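Here is one chain, start to finish.
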Amino acid sequence: MLKRRKAELAAIQETLGQNIHRHRETRFAQEISITANLVGSSVISSINPLPLPPQPLQYRSSTAAPPKSETEEEDEGETSNKKTQRAEVLEAFQQEIPRFLDLILEHEFDQHIGNDCHLCTRPGAKRTTRCYDCNHPLSCSECFISAHRHNRTHWAEVWNEDPGFFVRNDISTLRPEGYAQHLGHGGDPCPMPDSEEDLLFFIVDVNGIHNTKLRFCHCPGADDRVGQLLRHRLFPATLERPKSAFTFQLLHNFHLHHLESKATKYDFMGALRRLTDNAFTNEVSDLYSQFRIVTQVWTVLTATKRLGQAHGIDDALPHRPKGTLIIYCPACPEPHFNMLPGWEKTPPEFRHLIQMQMTLDGNFHLNRYIKNTDPHDTSLFRGRAYIPDDQVYQDYVKKIVLATKADKYNCGHLEVLRKQNAVKKFKNMAVSGSANGQCGHVFVKSSVDLQMGERFANVDYAVAHALRQQTICGSADESQGTLDLLISYDISCAYSIHATERFSGTPYLRDVAKDIALARWLIPLVHVQNHKDNCTYLHSSAYTPNACHFHGETAEHFWPTGNQLGGQTRQMNSGHRHDTHIDHFGDWNFKKMVNLPNALYNDLIHAKKLYDIKCEIFKGLSKQYVDQIQNWNQTDRAWRTLEGNEVQSVYRHNQKNVPSESQIYQMLINELGSDSSPSLTDGTTTSQKSVAYFIHDGLLIRSAQLDVKAKLMFYKVENSEPLKAEIEGARLKLRTRIDRWRSVQKRIMPQVGDHVARQSTAGKTINKPEEERLFLPSDLSDEDRASIIPIIFSDIERKLLEGRAFDTLRDLRTIVKTLTNLYDEKGQNYGQVRQTRASARIQEVVSLRDSNINEYNSTRDALIKLGGIEEDDPILRHLTKQDTYQKRTNIKRTVGDTYRHDGLLWANRGVTSGTQQAHLPQSSTAGVLPSGISTIGTQGSKAKKRRHIAGRKMPKPKKRRTEKGMVTDGDKSDTEKKKKADRKEGWLWRIRPTSRLTEDELREWLEEGDRVQWFRAEAEMQRWQEEWEIKQVEFLRCIRYFEQMSITWNELATRSSGGKAAYAKKKSAMFHEMTTHARNLFMHAGYSDLLNLDGPALVNHFRKVRALPENIIPELEPGFVHDSSDDASATSEGSD
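Its structure:
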């Protein structure tokens, strides 16, 4: 019985589960997800479907089911709690643990122990010795020595018969008299050793610390001890008669571990000692002090070898500083190396194609304590890498940094930095932190120590050291072109003011002063949010021409990696600390270089996608504001002016004559209640004009029906008697209005009399007029429209519906703008009273928004029924709440704006096309704004929190139910009370006390938001267009860099011989492989036609691309004339 019931339940779930799943997915499975990009600090908003499984159906029966057995309950529990793959694998291993232990313990013994050695014929040779590190079988000790002449650090495990287990031994202990390993002669004894006695020697390898014996060769012409050790891949701990050494394999192994896991030398040596003897570790020699020195030297040797200084690469790359040990960014412009021929002729409007982007940032985790230190312990890199020469820099610090007064900041936000730079914060610190300079691709270029916080003078030296690595000007006389230099720093607003004077007036920096004079200064897009609003319009890349999408936040990308070093480097001497940082900077840059083609590929695809989106958005706005943009386009985008203390720009809402909240809010309410349409009930003719008014009045009644339905929905949330009474009153008015309209319908449309009579006889809509069908042409079936009413009725309704759809869209934009500002007000309010009032207003306008969305979609459905548009009409599309999203124009640009797009209501050329045209006036009960009203804009800056004034009592809130239909004609007393209360309370938009504005001033202010929106959309489109173009050029520079490096290393190979030549060829092959990989990715992205272009040809290519039809904004073309006949056709024909 139970099985049968389960089968029935499964069948029901199979048939209904999919429908349930689809229903729940449609209604509830939407999630707004925010994603972070490592090529920047950007935010992307998207709607993703979340598959929701159907709820299990519960089988109900009047007969109680028999109790389940324990076995059945266990089976069901296992089915409902399905194990993950990881849990299954772990469980499988757990079951095999006894077997694994048996097999592992078998290695502690060998059944062949004591047998004759099978590898030799020595008499009495027994199998007692095996290798712990390789697969050498159990043999006699002599065979083990013969097999390990070149594997001197393998551990020998010798069977000890008395205790009965294997004992680990060094190879030197396998003979009673001892065994010494010979260096030279292929491992054979040297005929002229430098000593008749074996030399006790420590060799440290990856498997532990070996206390062994060595003998050096003393033949004529033989190397000294250091040379012989190095030839056997052993790095000596000292140069004078070394007695310990580290294998190359160990040093390379630790180097990678240190770079990847930040393992300390102390911990690594401790692990090696435990590998040697895990029980009596204290008896194992500690070579930590020698290990510190050797690893520091090893890092310098590795960098010198890898960067070609051992091969004389300076002769092949004379444009770089002599002896440089920096890994350069392949995508950044490097004159004379990776730039396309003819780059010097790049016109100013394309200067982003030859742009060097640089970021600056300070970090206070990489500090150093005041301690007794060795003043002679200096960096082995000697200023040739990312950190300048310490002796020169310390002289600069003493004469410039410490002698300079505290920096002055002109931005209120930087007060935080001033407090951070307080001396008390860095007590007992010799170095308070580090300041880094990086390129836009996150390659570290320079780093300097900070002494008293993040001082301008310290950062100046970091900038100078970075600029000295590569030239900005094409030649010494600057006759061959100059790179465009962008520098992003989180305090650029203060740092850049006297930067040129500081550099030109300081002897240490004077050589790069001309480059600083050419620089343009930005603030990272996330950091600028915490600055004064003025900083956004002066230093944001979003509003800086030819700045691309340079967000500048990559300056902090290295710090999570670097901060892991803080704990170990703050106790180091200065030189050791610097070399550790330089080593990690170089490794960071190398990994970036290897992965750069992949990063550029992703950036290129992403930039093209975002440009296409921004271009379509800007096209839609240009079509929407076609009547204004001819005047707007005359404005200089670079225009900035200071009015009072505020910077004015085309991207900022002007703060003059900002209206109060009550004016904007009351304007919305009054216009919703205006009544300017003539009534049809007095008409006596049946002309087309009378039909038009009749149908128009019917459409207004239909809108009023939607209002009552919205009230009913609100009543379900706020179940109150006053609201119920108001709904009944609205129904009574609606019934009266329908009855009057029916009398006119009887005369104008007698053909639908039977339909009206049948509905009236049914009596279902007598007390529910909102459900009554009006039997307009769109309410009839296709057959009835064709048979019982003239076609002119359908044509007139179709034209009026199209006009109403555009009017509703325009009104909806006004409502959404108002809603945005109400949310701002709520965020600035404090206290329960104000929060309650703000929430009530928001609910009211939300109801207005939803009602207008429903009205638009109903109008659209009616148009589809009348054949006015298709279901997939590109102009009048289906509208959702998400489509009403608009980026804010009343505040400065926020984080993630570039990844948030205006909804279809604002940016789509289809939905918003034609909405600038006025249509037939509407009556008061329609619940929508008149068509001629301008959209409500937004203000120019954040609101200041209202100060509490002593002695002033805050007005008590007036309870106001909020719903669209609750604002009715003639309800002036409540409105006047609200206006009075709002004037006392103030609002988000009140920047200063404002006087009453005239209607023209108010409308001018409202239209300001449209202008700001259009300019900001244009700026976003331009920045992503520049980003798309610069990524193409950076990709080409990257390919050329790899190609040139391959050629350079190949030339170095021809100049060298032996190991040097082989290493150079290996490096050449590595860069050749990188070239091939980068070229293939570039071609896969679809840009193979650019591979052979020079600089001028590439500029001409971009000009042609910009001139393609899909990239042109017709409204901005010279001589463009807007033809409004199509947009106004519905209105003109419907009014005749």
